[in-house]
Sequence to fold (331 residues):
Amino acid sequence: MKNISILVPETAIMEAIADPRYMFTAANEFLKAAGKEPLFNVQLVGHKKAVKLMNNLVTVHPDKTLDEVKKTDLIFIPALSGDIRAALELNKKYIPWIIEQHKKGAEVASLCIGAFLLASTGLLNGKKCSTHWLSAEDFREMFPEVELVDGSILSEENGIYSSGGANSYWTLLLYLLEKYTSRETAILASKFFAVDIDRDSQSKYMMFKGQRNHKDEAIRKVQDHIEKNIEEKMTIDELAEVVSLGRRSFERRFREATNNSVLEYIQRVKIEAAKRSLETSRKNVSEVMFDVGYTDTKAFRDLFKKITGLSPVEYRNKYNKIVLEPREELI
Fold:
């Protein structure tokens, strides 16, 4: 029997507690239906007997408190809501318990921005991690010793798991279910819960807003220039001249400020503008391509797919509900 401990921290997202509980209790039923013994002992674990969530709308009564769980096999850290630093302060009592259980052999999995609480334990230092794409900049600032994998649905390293944003955690739940049971059981669960199995990227959901949480005014001026002139072809030397910097110094400062190379930043700004146009306008893909400064069809298609995981046509068809002309681009 595998003991699964789903934490109930203050400010936790209710679904990120209920869904793993539902997944693994349902798995027990699948196993029984197949003539096998149930495998999972699923318990909610809190630092007190009653935890109010959703602005006090819901009270969750954990099955056990931290001091009552002497050993467990798998810990789930759910997503947190609200101000993340305040949430971490409220839930610091969980940190030594998680560390102690990991030392005893427990695996640990964070869901979405539950990664912040997991990272606070130090167990992620020097390891890969996934979290919600919208929280990536804050995560890097708070935990520079952790290797955040942009756009990843899940990360695994030495029995420590993390998932990407929002419903991405279903992929991690299915992954762990398959690890503890079988591929057959995981596929059955994916069908039962109507969720995709083996998703590997958040890319098509990500929105690039430009990293502006820095104090380098010269680099911010260049960011403004790039974002206001997306139709232009820009060189690094030209952008360095905008702020009267040498190329080497400019490239170094740009990466330090934005966590992107100059070329990566230009590409992501242009593709973000192309995404918005494909979502909301009647323009065909070629028109959108020209609007953001590209003339090479293959280069634009390849870059768009690299960043979003979809071709321009696939992206438009997924997110644009406007009735388009019957002619389809080949891009």
About this structure: Residues 278 and 316 are 5 Å apart (CA to CA). The longest strand covers residues 40-46.
